[in-house]
Amino acid sequence: MQRRQRTAHRRIWMVLGVVLPTLVIFALASRQTVPVDRPAVLIEAPGQ
Amino acid sequence: MSVKYVPVTWNRNKYIYDAVAIVAIVLYLYVFLRVGGALQDVTRPVDGAILRMRAFGTCAFFMLTIILCIGPLARLDRRFLPLLYNRRHFGVMTCGVAIMHADAVLRWYFAFSPVDPYVALLGSNTDFGQWLGFPFEVFGIAALLVLLVLAATSHDFWLSFLTPPVWKTLHMGIYFAYTAIIAHVGLGYLQSQKDPTFAALVGMCVLTVAALHVMAARREGHVDRIEPVTADDGFVFAGQVDDIENNRAIVAILPLGERVAIFRHDGKLSAISNVCAHQNGPLGEGRIIDGAVTCPWHGFQYRPEDGCAPAPFTERISTYRLRLDGQQIYLDPNALPPGTRVEPVVIGDAT
After folding, report:
1. Closest CA–CA distance from residue B67 to any residue of chain A (Å)
2. DSSP label of B260
3. Residue B259 forms beta bridges with which residues?
4. What's the angle, vertex CA B349, arms to CA B345 and CA B351, rounded to 5?
5. B216: which of B75, B150, B309, B350 fits an S-S bond (Cβ 3.0–4.6 Å)?
6. ipTM given for this complex
7. What is the mean pLDDT of residues B108-126?
8. Cα gap B322→B344, rounded to integer Å
9. Are A24 and B217 in contact (CB < 8 Å)?
C-alpha cells in the first residue's frame, strides 16, 4: 500500500475509532424506558 | 492481470469462497426466521414481514462487520489473508442482502400508503431537528446508495479504468457506509427494541471493528516512523542477508516513507516496489512462486529482476538497485522506471 493510503486509513480510523463507539453508547443511553412507577391503566373495550 | 477484458475470472478458490459465503447467509436467514420467531416476546409478537426485514437487516450488518474486519486482520496476522482473496464478492453479496432488507421495508411499512412507497419513505417523517424520533431511514438509504456504487464498481474493469489510487479512495466510502449503518441501527432498531441481546451484539461488532483498525493503523504508523539509515553514497541500509528467508522478502523503508520489498531467491537478492500494480497490495508479504514474486492479496505475479509480470501479462512495477557490504544490504532509494531490469546481487559477492 502506498504511504498516502496508509496515512489516510490511519487518520480515518483514529477518528472512527472514537466516533463509532460513542455513537452506539449515545444511542443506547438515549433509549426511553417506561417509568417503573407509572400507574396502571384500565383498558376497556370500545363502547363500554 | 489479463491481456484482454474478461468479465469474470473464476477459479476453484473463488467457487469455494462464494459457496461458503452463500451457505452461511442462507443458514443465518433460515435460523433467524425459524428460531427468531420462536424466541420472541409472546406478549408482543412480531409478524412475519417484520421478522424478514430484521433477518435481512441484521444479516447485512454482520456481513459488513466481517468485511471490515478482514482487512486489519490480514494486516495483523497472515493466516487471515485467504479471506481477503475474494472479499469483493462478499461485498456484492452484502449489497444484495441490504437491498432485500430495503425491499422488505418498502413492501411492508410503506406499501399501504396512498402515495408512492418511495415518496412515503422520504416524506413520512421529516423531524430532522430532534434526536429521538429522528428519521433514521435516511442513514440506511445513504448507506445503501454507497453499497450500490461500490458493488457496481467492484469489478477489475473499474479498478483498471479508474486506476488503483482512485478506486481505493472511492472504496474507502465503505467506512462512511458503516458509520451511516450504525446511525441507522442506533436511532432506529435500538430505540424500539428492549431486548439487550442485539444492542450488546452491535456494541461488540463496533468495538471489534474499531479496535482492529486502530491496532493495524498503529502498527503501520510505527513502521512508517522508522528513520532509515543512509550511507555516504546515498544508499539506505535495508537489513541483513540472514534476515531474509529463501523466496521471501524483507521490507525496507525509504526516506519519504515508501516501502521496497527485497527478495531472496536462488542465492541472489532483488529489490522491487512493495506496491502491487493491481490493488496496491504489499508484495513484500508475498513469496516467490515458480520464480515470480506473488502478491499475497490476489496472486498477481512479477519477475524479481525486472518487476514485469510474466508473459502474456503486462503489469510492471519499479525496481531498485542493491549493493551488499558483507552481510549488510544497502538499497538505492531512487526508483528505476517500472520494468527496468536490474541484475540480481549474488549473496556473498560485494557489488
Report:
1. 15
2. E
3. B253
4. 60
5. B75
6. 0.77
7. 82
8. 8
9. no
Is B182 at the interface with chain A, CB within 8 A?
yes
Contact A21 B207 (CB under 8 A): yes
Interface contact flag, B224 A3, Cβ < 8 Å: yes
Q: According to the model, what pLDDT value does residue B309 have?
A: 92
List, in order, residues 6 or more apart from B313 with CB less than 8 Å away: B1, B2, B3, B301
Q: Does B205 touch chain A (CB under 8 A)?
A: no
B328-331 vs B322-325, strand pairing mode: antiparallel
DSSP, collapsed to helix, strand or coil, labels residue B66 as helix
Cell digits for B231? 550511507
pTM over 0.90: no
Question: Mean pLDDT, chain B, as a whole number?
Answer: 88
Distances (CA, A) of A32 to B40, B126, B201: 21, 20, 20
Residues 244-263 of B with CB under 8 A from A: 256-259
Do B252 and B262 touch, CB atoms closer than 8 A? yes
CA distance B142 to B129: 18
Cell 512508517 belongs to B224
- Over the stretch B208-251, which tens digit does the pLDDT of each residue have? 999 999 999 988 888 878 888 888 888 999 999 999 999 999 99
Beta carbons of B191 and A30 less than 8 Å apart: yes
